[in-house]
Amino acid sequence: MFLLGAARALVPPRWWRQWPFLPLPDHRYWKFRMETAYGRTNARPSITQAVEVARWWREFRAVSR
Fold it and tell me: What are the domain boundaries of the chain?
């Protein structure tokens, strides 16, 4: 369930109005995040890394409220 919360934070508002009709983060934001995290814009995080980031996001949000 925590993965849905993390994904919701990345999805742009009204994502269903633009092609492709998928809840994907803006490509510029994604490239920026990959470059800052991995040093290159075409990096692809593993599933394990994605789950760890989602857990961190959940804990961060709980503390920052």
Answer: 2-6+24-64
Residue in the block written with tokens 């999805």: 11
CA distances (Å), 15 to each of 19, 25, 33, 60, in order? 8, 9, 19, 25
Q: How far apart are CA 23 and CA 26, in angstroms?
A: 9
pTM of the predicted model, to two decimals? 0.56
Task: Please state, in angstroms and rounded to a whole number, the distance separating the CA atoms of residues 37 and 10.
Answer: 16
* Whole-number Cα distances in Å, 3 to 7, 12, 39: 6, 16, 24
Q: What is the mean pLDDT of each run of 10 residues along the chain (65 residues)?
A: 69 80 82 93 91 86 78
